């Protein structure tokens, strides 16, 4: 997790730079981690007046109430044993937060153990927030917290093991001789990630703003099912009729929504913008920020803008490693979803629930395909001679998914027309308005 400002790495500071709300979370959690292993961790920070009601009303992914799940409190010795004393051949990855090792617990369970560098980007506060969030939240598209360790100065997090590692390992910096992720797998990952965000925004109570969506934070199981990880920057969303929360600008450069950078006002639509960048990464195979490219092409969103506006150029966005192996109609709709998520005006970005429906249509693969699950156009089952089975799909649901996908594409076109109309009106009134090149 990159725990730094969108502008530059931020020095660690005491409570002066820390919002009172965050301090409350840390104080409450610090006390909880010192308690016995059997004691329940708190569901919600104490600064929410409705904390007890929120805990009672928190829903699982299927709508049934859930309570906070207490991860096991491990000793440092147990985790050292599980990882063979953090031996180098157990290392899965490392970053500004510390290192992640593959481990095996006494019961045989294989886990990923994140050993935090408290002098790095993820400090004690982020550790406490992550334990809180993952104890409260439960969804198939969120990584599960097995437990934690807080012995002395040691801070470790124990997660379920994800066999394929991070999405970034499979999507970015691939060479021409590597087999790329197929179009279907990319849309499957986009759909699952959207479902995870939908749960955080619309089903968790209070809502949660993830704040650090990016390909390195999406972990994959052995069937390419995605799970959101690294919740150290996550924040509880606005409650009590408030439209936003004010906070320091934190996240990863290239993914931050423009209004968040300008105003420090955080909403769920901030995550929606980041999802648009993430979806562009899946479509293009490019990094959100790539300093190895020419200066004009380093920022993915800036590079993609002209092509997002012109359907005849959508094919220029596609990862060249796919070699044209993707359904052209589905590409247009996937690009339209990304474009709507990337609208500069936060209010016109879609809700994640609408995005889930649209991407569900694009990710759908009918049964009966032979050995082409990763490459065939998902929605062309009636025309593809390789389709040999029969399916009984809910036609109404299928039509609804198609309609939402087309509605999002229509919305992107309408937004451009609205911007052009507003520019003409402003010109007639003698007002200098933003040019179309500054809009999506």
For the largest sheet, list the strands in their spatial order: 1-5-6-4-3-2
Output the CATH topology of the largest domain: Transferase(Phosphotransferase), domain 1
Question: For the residues shown, what is the average pLDDT?
Answer: 76
Radius of gyration: 22 Å
Q: Segments where pLDDT lies below 50 for 5+ residues?
A: 1-58, 63-67, 368-391, 435-440
State the CATH class of the largest domain.
Answer: Mainly Alpha
How much strand?
5-15%
What assembly state would you assign to the polypeptide chains in this entry?
single chain
Total beta strand runs = 13
Q: Name the helicity range.
A: 25-40%
Order of helices and strands: HHEHEEEHEEEHHEEEEEHEHHHHH
Structural class: alpha+beta
Q: Kindly, what is the distance between the CA atoms of the first and last residues, rounded to a whole number of angstroms? A: 28 Å
The geometry reads as: globular
The CATH homologous superfamily of the largest domain corresponds to Transferase(Phosphotransferase) domain 1
Number of helices: 12
- Tell me the number of structural domains: 2
CATH architecture of the largest domain: Orthogonal Bundle
Task: Walk me through the structure.
This protein is an alpha+beta fold and 440 residues long. The strands form 4 sheets. It has a 6-stranded mixed β-sheet with strand order 1-5-6-4-3-2, sandwiched between helices. The protein has 2 domains: 15-160, Phosphorylase Kinase, domain 1, CATH 3.30.200.20; 165-438, Transferase(Phosphotransferase), domain 1, CATH 1.10.510. A hairpin with a 6-residue loop joins β5 and β6. The longest helix has 34 residues, at 395-428. Helix content is 37%, strand content 11%. Residues 37-51, 393-403 have a biased composition (Basic and acidic residues). Keywords: ATP-binding, Cell membrane, Kinase, Lipoprotein, Membrane, Nucleotide-binding, Serine/threonine-protein kinase, Transferase. Its EC number is 2.7.11.1. Its main location: membrane.
């Amino acid at each position: 997790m990159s725990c730094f400002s969108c502008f530059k790495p931020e020095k660690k500071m005491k409570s002066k730079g820390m919002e009172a709300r965050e301090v409350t979370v840390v104080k409450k959690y610090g006390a909880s981690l010192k308690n016995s292993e059997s004691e329940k961790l708190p569901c919600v920070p104490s600064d929410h007046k409705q904390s007890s009601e929120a805990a009672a009303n928190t829903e699982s992914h299927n709508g049934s109430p859930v309570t906070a799940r207490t991860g096991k409190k491990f000793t440092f010795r147990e985790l050292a044993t599980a990882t063979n004393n953090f031996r180098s051949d157990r290392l899965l990855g490392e970053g500004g937060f510390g290192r992640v090792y593959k481990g095996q617990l006494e019961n045989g369970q294989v886990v990923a153990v994140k050993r935090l560098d408290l002098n790095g980007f993820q400090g004690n506060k982020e550790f406490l927030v992550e334990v809180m969030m993952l104890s409260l939240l439960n969804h198939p598209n969120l990584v599960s917290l097995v437990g934690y360790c807080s012995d002395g100065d040691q801070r470790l997090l124990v997660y379920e093991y994800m066999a394929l590692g991070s999405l970034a390992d499979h999507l970015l910096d691939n060479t021409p001789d590597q087999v790329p992720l197929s179009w279907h797998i990319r849309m499957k990952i986009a759909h699952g990630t959207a479902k995870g965000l939908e749960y955080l925004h619309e089903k968790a109570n209070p809502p949660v703003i993830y704040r650090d969506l990016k390909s390195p934070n999406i972990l994959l199981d052995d069937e390419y099912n995605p799970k959101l990880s690294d919740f150290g920057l996550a924040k509880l969303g606005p409650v009590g009729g408030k439209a936003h929360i004010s906070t320091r600008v934190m996240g990863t450069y290239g993914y931050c929504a423009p209004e968040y950078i300008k105003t420090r006002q955080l909403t769920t639509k901030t995550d929606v913008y980041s999802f648009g960048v993430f979806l562009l990464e899946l479509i293009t195979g490019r990094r959100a920020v790539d300093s190895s490219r020419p200066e004009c092409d380093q920022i993915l969103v800036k590079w993609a803008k002209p092509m997002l506006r012109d359907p005849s150029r959508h094919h220029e966005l596609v990862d060249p490693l796919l070699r044209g192996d993707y359904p052209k109609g589905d590409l247009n709709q996937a690009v339209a979803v990304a474009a709507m998520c990337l609208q500069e005006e936060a209010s016109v970005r879609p809700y994640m629930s609408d995005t889930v429906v649209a991407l569900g249509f694009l990710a759908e693969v009918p049964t009966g395909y032979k050995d082409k699950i990763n490459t065939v156009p998902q929605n062309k089952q009636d025309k593809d001679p390789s389709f040999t089975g029969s399916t009984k799909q809910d036609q109404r649901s299928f039509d609804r998914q198609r309609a939402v996908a087309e509605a999002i594409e229509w919305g992107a076109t309408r937004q451009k027309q609205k911007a052009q109309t507003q520019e003409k009106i402003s010109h007639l009134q003698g007002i200098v308005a933003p040019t179309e090149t500054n809009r999506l």
